[in-house]
């Protein structure tokens, strides 16, 4: 359907058997089907549910353990850990959380993190950017501007823009948090893409122009402010979508 984002994570890709099992169990855990402190079903029950081998299940459990979701002990079983142990900076956990539907409080939490991280990144980019960085950002904006009726194309161009700012910052830690940015953008576009309204599309493109203009001018404070503004604009769009009356 035109104007609707219908993909999972932007990066896509085919999941292996153990990744599919890890995802299914991970979604169940995040949804509260298996709350913190609960035991996962016996191994035989899980094997029957998915029609998999013990080797596949073992690999799935390794994945969930590494993400801080579960702990397995001999003669005790597999227990769901408290959410304080869950790594919400993990790309998979973020995607599993968003896949369950929109939690406005969580979207706002993501936005708070982005305002802190990406505003700092934009300010650093204003001090460290190269001409190649600026050219890449402007190419991304050109793609966004051209995507007047294609939400998927707009989303990919927007993500590439924010990644380009991260690279221009020269901060390896900011670049490593791309999963947070990707998931936040995905949440935004699933709820309400700017391409669905001409005014929203124009405002989003203009907001990104202000970011790169400030970065190119070496205006660290202006770049940070423009980045915070564009993130706030996205959150406001989600809130309007959630609060819109059902027709």
Please tag this protein with its features:
single chain; 247 residues; mainly alpha; Arc Repressor Mutant, subunit A; Four Helix Bundle (Hemerythrin (Met), subunit A); 2 domains; two-stranded antiparallel sheet; 68% helix; disordered N terminus
Helix content: 55-70%
**Which strand order do you get reading across the main beta sheet?**
1-2
Total strand segments: 2
Q: What name goes with the CATH superfamily of the largest domain?
A: GntR ligand-binding domain-like
Overall radius of gyration: 20 Å
Q: Secondary-structure element sequence? A: HHHEEHHHHHHHH
- What is the helix tally? 11
Report the average pLDDT across residues: 86
CATH topology of the largest domain: Four Helix Bundle (Hemerythrin (Met), subunit A)
Distance from N terminus to C terminus (CA atoms, Å) equals: 19 Å
Please identify the top-level CATH class of the largest domain.
Mainly Alpha
Structural class: mainly alpha
Total domain units: 2
| Main sheet properties | 2 strands, antiparallel
Overall shape: elongated
Protein name: FadR family transcriptional regulator
InterPro entries: GntR_C (IPR011711), TF_FadR/GntR_C (IPR008920), Tscrpt_reg_HTH_GntR (IPR000524), WH-like_DNA-bd_sf (IPR036388), WH_DNA-bd_sf (IPR036390)
GO molecular function, one term: DNA binding
Keywords: DNA-binding, Transcription, Transcription regulation
